[in-house]
Amino acid sequence: MNRIVLLGPPGAGKGTQAKRLATELGIPHVSTGDMLRAAVAQGKSLGKEADEYMRKGLLVPDALVLGILRERLASPDARRGFILDGYPRNVAQARTLAEITPVDHVLYFEIPESVLVERMSQRRSCPTCGTVYNLLTNPPRTPDRCDRDGTPLIQRPDDTEEAVRTRLAVYREQTLPLLDLYRNQGLLRTVAAAGSVEEVNARVRAALR
Ligand code: AP5
Asked: Among residues 21, 49, 138, 184, which one has the fewest Cβ atoms lying within 10 Å of its Cβ?
């Protein structure tokens, strides 16, 4: 089965690859970050609680994230597999995930920090449909407008220099230890995540074979 976890630092291209892979494999892309941002945009109580953590680049408390994750993985479309993007992010979340579902592949997106910072500073996204652009590598056809629905594009509030610094520190402290955990379980494959979207996609597919 394709129960896939994508691990990697912020800005590594996990979301970009997950969307492609979801189409290619016919399984859902389950992004805790996207679900939390949707809850914020819809003014849900979960969103109100999560917003402050996200803006600062801190992890949202485990219990809040677990609720939405559990519900999403229980959906019928996730029965044939899923691409988990943004979960788990610490050892406690990895343990919880193991209680909910087995995992078949863990792909680690390895990339130099300088590339990450540039990718995040150039990222823009559509607040209506969620399409992600990059001003350098994947710009919209009309400047600052979504190709799909014409909505003015926004910069994520956690793509500021300060929040990015915090996100990278949180990643190093809390998420990096998961590499050893999944390596010891024989599940980890490393994907070189620098290069074009097509090149990385080819490496992801090769790692899943
Ligand atoms: P989340 O949304 O998961 O953010 P992240 O992990 O920091 O990852 P990003 O979305 O920044 O990067 P990405 O790797 O998906 O890169 P992308 O494809 O967009 O989490 C946000 C926040 O939510 C967290 O900080 C936390 O507060 C909270 N949260 C979420 N999950 C949580 C959890 N489990 N527990 C607790 N809190 C949680 O690409 C980046 C840019 O580069 C784009 O512009 C893209 O177009 C471009 N790009 C992508 N690939 C390439 C390429 N190959 N070449 C050139 N450009 C590229």
From this structure: 184
Q: Is 145 helix (H, G, I), strand (E, B) or coil?
A: strand
Among residues 72, 89, 119, 124, the one annotated as catalytic is: 89
Cis amide linkage into residue 88, ω under 30° from 0: yes
Number of domains in the chain: 1
**Cβ-Cβ contacts under 8 Å for 193 (sequence gap 6 or more):** 8, 12, 13, 109, 110, 111, 200
Alpha-carbon distance 85 to 143, whole Å? 28
Measure the CA dihedral 40/44/49/51, to 10°: 10
Tokens representing 198 are 């097509």
The Å distance, Cα 14 to ligand 1 centre, comes to: 6
Q: Are 117 and 11 contacting, i.e. CB atoms less than 8 angstroms apart?
A: yes
Contact 96, 128 (CB under 8 A): no
CB 99 within 8 A of CB 70: no
* pLDDT tens column, 125-167: 999 999 999 999 999 999 999 999 999 999 999 999 999 999 9
Give the range of the structural domain holding residue 199, as residue numbers without chain letter.
2-208
pTM beyond cutoff 0.90: yes
Question: From CA 67, how far away is CA 54, in angstroms rounded?
Answer: 17
Query: Rounded to an integer, what distance in angstroms lies between the CA atom of residue 145 and that of residue 154?
Result: 9
Q: Is 123 in the pocket of ligand 1 (CB under 6 A)?
A: yes
